[in-house]
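Q: Can I see a sequence and its folded structure?
A: Here is a first one.
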Amino acid sequence: MESLHYLLMKAHTMLNKEIVERASGEGLSPGQPKILEYLLEFGESNQKAIASYCEIEQATAGSVLLRMESAGLIRRFQKDGNRRSLYVALTPKGLTAARRMEQIFKE
């Protein structure tokens, strides 16, 4: 009989594979769905908070966000004259993608 650890790991792998495949069908790359989910739940935020919540390095978050910005899913902007920190918000296209992913996560 398999250990609980093994069964949890196997379930996680299977679920993650399904989500990645369905996200890919929506035109999203790995990493983008969890950022969309974060922005849908918490609204505009800075890159540091997004990286922390998604448990990824800030540099990795920056790369993912750059691709998302190029795809028109997010916009980055300065807030309150703070030139050291860029904030991120969903665009209408990003909001649609986030809601589709929310449905996929529920399924």
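Q: Show me another, different protein.
A: A second, unrelated one:
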Amino acid sequence: MTLLEVDGIHTSYGISDVLFDISVRVEAGESVGLLGRNGVGKSTTMRSIMGLTPPSQGSVSWKGQKVNGMPTSDIARLGVGFVPEDRRVFPDLTVWENLDIARRMHGDAEQWDEQRVYALFPELERFRDRRGGHLSGGQQQMLTIARSLMGNPELLLLDEPSEGLAPLVVDKLKEQIAALQAAGLSLVLAEQNLNFVLDLSDRVYILEKGEVKFEGTSDELRQSPELVSRYLSV
């Protein structure tokens, strides 16, 4: 079943065109990577999906329903979670309060609650009474992901989740994201960290100057050093 289908979107910031005919799809239970250097349109693709920067052309569909023009809050209620690049925790609220404010219960499916996110991120339970602004960068990233899970999404968009984190923290985060995959959550990972994405993704898209330059499996990209060199090397 196709959860998300992005079909030929064009997105601009004012008079500056950023995305050109971007098409991406995500199947149920699938993890998809968006790769590319800084500034190629990965974050804008995420924002276009969530309605934060609506595309001027093309369509974004969720389970076959066109969601173009919907408020971001309505797209989230349909089952799409978003973890932004800048880790927008509420700095004056405790870890528990950050989680509680995002709680959303629906349907009969297994729900994400505090105990389930604490099982995934034990560090958050230890610091449940600490204010969000007093957490480390890695802890804030965990909290941002955990807060998104409290909305019980079917698809989670993660924008540059490893950026700015120490290698040991990145390794731990990779394990936690893999646990989300094992729980059946569908994922989109926008990243510059090639190995991070390839280890976690079934399929990948490479973006360059707002266009898709490659679509294929992670294994196909591993076997194409010329593509890595052309589009991903610094």
